[in-house]
Amino acid sequence: MYIFTSKKELQKYLATLTSAKTIGFIPTMGALHQGHLQLITESKNQCDISICSIFVNPTQFNNPEDLAKYPNTLKVDLEKLEQLACDIVYTPTVEDLYEKDEQAKSFDFGSLTIGMEGEFRPGHFNGMATIVEKFFNIINPTKAFFGQKDLQQLQIVKALAKQMQSDIQIIGIPTIREENGLAKSSRNELLTTSAKQEATLVYKCLQYCKNNQELAIPTLEKYIQEQFKNNPHFKLEYIDFVSLSTLLPITKWEAKNQNAICIAAYIEGVRLIDNIIL
Length: 278
Ligand code: AMP
Prior knowledge:
This protein is of the alpha/beta class. The chain folds into two domains: 2-173, HUPs (Rossmann fold), CATH 3.40.50; 186-271, Pantoate--beta-alanine Ligase, Chain: A,domain 2. 37% of the residues lie in helices and 20% in strands. The protein is built from eleven helices and nine strands. The protein has helices spanning 7-14, 34-46, 64-68, 74-83, 94-97, 117-120, 124-139, 151-163, 193-198, 200-211, 217-229, and strands at 2-4, 23-28, 49-54, 88-90, 143-147, 169-173, 234-243, 259-267, 270-277. The strands form two sheets. Strands 1-4-3-2-5-6 form a six-stranded parallel beta sheet, sandwiched between helices. It has a three-stranded antiparallel beta sheet with strand order 7-8-9, with helices on one face. It is globular. The N and C termini lie far apart (39 Å). The mean pLDDT is 97. Residues 28-29, 35-36, 38-39, 146-147, 149-150, 173, 175-176, 183-185 line the site of adenosine monophosphate.
């Protein structure tokens, strides 16, 4: 496994590969868990060479405290990647990717950034798209792999690739979950054992919607809001029923697999997000 800490070294190596080789790219912020590793496995299945980046991107954090306490487990991460036989890891410094005082670019993704994470994490998607665009330009992968757990991010990255007039294929990978249904996340490690169990409420609500799709959307929405109200440990930030293509709210179901239900909620001060496509 090659480890590069500068884009120059990485690009120098990539230039030695024949253009016939397909390249899979998996951007991460480290603290790798089974969800991340699934993206690597998919890339390995679909591409000749897999490149995983580990970079905590400062421009996508609207809260400096959140950035400061982001976990760094590089040594263990590299061991996990080595075990999966990931071909290349790119672990750049901030200076390798940003000029001094460089800010996030301003993008226009239309309706995709209006609600949900766009509303509650202002500036987050400009920062995310800024770094993903940089990575795409440096690596120019054949395919890039993103988790459906961050559904809004996935849809925005697809729009970004289009705006860049790039041929990079954006591949969405289904959410990997704990046995009890809780979506895997590095933030789960911050939860006590009892909160981890209670946190399954998010998944249970999404499953309830799946099993009761004959009910009207406002009825389901009210039901979920009540579930969260009845649990004093939870603070629901949003529950949105949206059209998958526009991410705008819907009150009536669209065609099968064109609807998404997205939830963000705090438990023990830890922010969890999850979604389901119906
Ligand atoms: P992050 O390191 O949090 O930026 O995540 C890196 C990538 O892993 C993103 O594309 C996420 O959507 C994806 N990811 C995170 N958690 C999961 C999960 N539980 N299942 C599948 N993909 C995930």
